[in-house]
TrEMBL record:
Keywords: Chaperone, Disulfide bond, Membrane, Mitochondrion, Mitochondrion inner membrane. It comes from the Eukaryota. This is COX assembly mitochondrial protein. It comes from Fistulina hepatica ATCC 64428. It holds the Pfam family Cmc1.
Length: 59
């Protein structure tokens, strides 16, 4: 079994994150629009959009 070096692991995580952000772009954009102009109220006003973003990123 081959283990990944720290650099390979970091590169893999960066690539996976970039892919997830690309695939989930519409959902992330909707969440960002909800957050615009909010500070404290974002915690409850955009909760449903946050859950959708999290589910998309997990996939």
């Amino acid at each position: 079994m081959n283990a990944l070096s720290r650099r390979e692991e970091e590169n893999l995580l960066k690539a996976a994150k970039a892919f997830a952000l690309k695939e989930c772009e519409p959902v992330v954009r909707e969440f960002a629009e909800c957050c615009t102009g909010r500070f404290v109220s974002v915690a409850w006003a955009c909760r449903s959009q946050l859950h959708v973003v999290q589910n998309c990123m997990r996939q």
